[in-house]
Amino acid sequence: MLIGYARVSTQAQSLDRQIGALNGAGVDRIFREKATAKTVKGRPQLEKAIDALGTDDVLVIAEWDRATRSMMDGITIIQRVADRGATVKVLDKPWLDLTSPMGKGCQLSFRDGPTVLCVVPEPNSALIKVNAATSHFEANATLASS
Questions:
Q1: I need a surface site. Which of 38, 71, 97, 114 has the fewest CB within 10 A?
Q2: Higher pLDDT, 42 or 78
Q3: Residue 98 within a domain
Q4: Which residues are tagged catalytic?
Q5: Which residues form the domain of 89?
Q6: Average pLDDT, stretch 38-44?
Q7: What is the CATH number for 108?
Q8: What's the pTM value of the predicted model, to 2 decimals?
């Protein structure tokens, strides 16, 4: 079974984009949450989603940064799901599709202890700086070769 999870921080925000992505992924059931929380504590719908998982089920998360903002919380989510015999698939982070052949390898390593797992949410500001620097470098290289 595919169990979906979508979350926004405030009542004014819309879950529509995430719900659309989860429906597009063919989830069987969606847990929706509108809650402000810096950690996974205080997210009852996430708890219910994990509790609903059975062996070989998949927790499908629409947007990883909506589920967790820290590496430790991400590891906790994945470990709790793995403890239920289930896996995680994150729609906006293909490298966090633990149902894929590569993801299954990571999860096997993870089940033996969190020795190899790339669950580090990168702050958007850091990504913007890297992308801006790369674009600036490429633009200068193009001008220099002209």
A1: 38
A2: 78
A3: yes
A4: 9
A5: 2-119
A6: 73
A7: 3.40.50.1390
A8: 0.71
The answer to whether position 134 is within a domain reads no
pLDDT one-digit tens code per residue, 77-128: 888 998 999 999 999 888 788 887 766 666 544 555 544 444 444 445 455 5
Which pLDDT value is given to residue 140?
53
Q: How many domains would you assign to the chain?
A: 1
Structural domain contains residue 71: yes
CA distance 78 to 67: 11
Q: How long a stretch of residues is the chain?
A: 146
SS (H, E, C) the chain: CEEEEEEECCCCCCCHHHHHHHHHCCCCEEEEEECCCCCCCCCHHHHHHHHCCCCCCEEEECCHHHHCCCHHHHHHHHHHHHHCCCEEEECCCHHHECCCHHHHHHHHHHHCCCCCCCCCCCCHHHHHHHHHHHHHHHHHHHHHHC
